[in-house]
Automatic annotation (TrEMBL):
Transmembrane segments: 12-32, 47-69, 81-98, 138-157, 164-181, 193-215, 227-245, 290-308, 315-337, 343-359
Protein name as catalogued: Multipass membrane protein
Keyword tags: Membrane, Transmembrane, Transmembrane helix
The keyword Transmembrane helix is annotated on this UniProt entry: yes
Highest taxon of source: Archaea
Organism: Cuniculiplasma divulgatum
Length: 377
């Protein structure tokens, strides 16, 4: 299979996977919210009127940008990155429109993150965003979701280098705001931070994905490959170190099992996911020390597999991240009120991108070798 056909196959499979992975849980989430979460009718109507108006303006803005830059040179960055970012941002935007979000986002998502931080200065800084949101929760929530819809649609519609550069600047700035205020700096100031439970934060992965569009040298496929290899391997190596730190309590009896237990009784939990989590929780309950050593070794090995460019290892790492997303992060969107798919899915998609880029680089090497009459192994 040549590089272009493989790339198209990857694009098609990713779009199908993301659609199936999101459509059922998103429908489930809204079903339970509208049925069980009470908001006065006048307030919910006001919220959705704001959301509809802002989202419409965002989509129109994305279309205008597409028309303005339709004749510009197309980006050399693999199309898969644009599709992944577009779909992820749109799903995040839709999740922001959950009925409970205007107030629940503060009480269930932001407030616990702030309380878990062990730094007074950081806590006071994050409270600034908390208090601003509290002034006009419906407007800010509608604007937040609509901005994410705009970014996602703009990524899906545009292919030009200039347009994607401008969109990526907006994407990076907003992702940084989310990473700081919405994800509490990816959990870094908290005790118990781990790659298993969401380090370094999904918004930071979005930033990693968007950076190639604003750095011209990453238009070269080999440079792009190196960029992803270094950034992703660093995440796993740092994750391994965090797993060893006693202050993160992963050596404490029951802690890792408890992280899974916290996901089990979520409102609207899928029964299949519930069964998997429950059996895993029971098995791990008294095996923390062995599991923690294994996780440390697995994370370090994952970082080295990526850094040393071992393709088989890369595939195994992808499987590991997928299991982490299921077992420890409850597929992100099942943890209500969900605002994103958590770190596991974006990180998994970056690994799939690395595999695609690896095939493209290998294909170019084969073509170049054939043109020069040199056998390529």
């Amino acid at each position: 299979m040549n590089g272009s056909k493989f790339g198209k196959s990857i694009n098609g499979l990713l779009v199908l996977f993301l659609f199936l992975a999101f459509i059922i849980p998103v429908v489930t989430i809204f079903f339970f919210d509208l049925r069980f979460y009470y908001i006065p009718e006048n307030e919910i109507s006001k919220f959705y009127i704001y959301s509809l108006i802002y989202s419409t303006l965002g989509i129109l803005a994305a279309i205008i940008i597409t028309i303005m830059f339709r004749k510009e040179e197309r980006s050399k960055i693999p199309n898969t990155i644009r599709l992944v970012l577009g779909i992820l941002w749109i799903v995040d935007g839709i999740l922001q429109f959950q009925p409970e979000m205007p107030y629940g986002f503060l009480s269930v998502v932001i407030e616990p993150s702030i309380q878990a931080i062990n730094n007074v200065g950081v806590e006071k800084f994050l409270m600034i965003g908390y208090n601003i949101w509290l002034l006009h929760p419906f407007q800010f929530d509608a604007l937040s979701g609509s901005l994410q819809i705009f970014i996602g649609v703009a990524y899906l519609l545009n292919r030009s280098t200039k347009a994607l550069k401008y969109i990526s600047f907006i994407s990076i700035i907003w992702a940084l705001v989310i990473w700081i205020f919405g994800e509490g700096l990816g959990g870094i100031p908290e005790s118990g931070v781990s790659l298993l439970t969401g380090f370094p934060g999904s918004a930071l992965i979005y930033i990693i994905l968007a950076v190639p569009y604003i750095l011209p040298k990453l238009g070269n496929i080999k440079n792009l490959q190196k960029y992803f290899i270094y950034t992703v391997s660093a995440i796993f190596l740092i994750g391994g170190i965090l797993q060893l730190i006693p202050g993160n309590t992963f050596w404490t009896k029951g802690q890792l099992a408890y992280d899974i237990y916290m996901n089990i009784n979520q409102q609207g939990e899928n029964p299949i996911v519930y069964a998997i989590l429950n059996h895993t929780y029971v098995y791990l309950l008294f095996r923390e020390n062995y599991l923690n050593i294994f996780m440390f070794l697995l994370m370090i090995a994952s970082g080295l597999f990526i850094l040393l460019h071992i393709r088989t290892g890369l595939i195994l790492v992808t499987v590991f991240v997928g299991l982490t997303w299921l077992l420890f992060q409850d597929m992100g969107i099942y943890i209500l009120p969900a605002t994103d798919p958590n770190t596991g899915l974006p990180l998994l998609l970056v690994l799939v991108l690395l595999i695609e880029i690896d095939f493209q680089v290998s294909n170019k090497r084969i073509i170049k070798g054939a043109a020069q009459g040199v056998p390529v192994t």
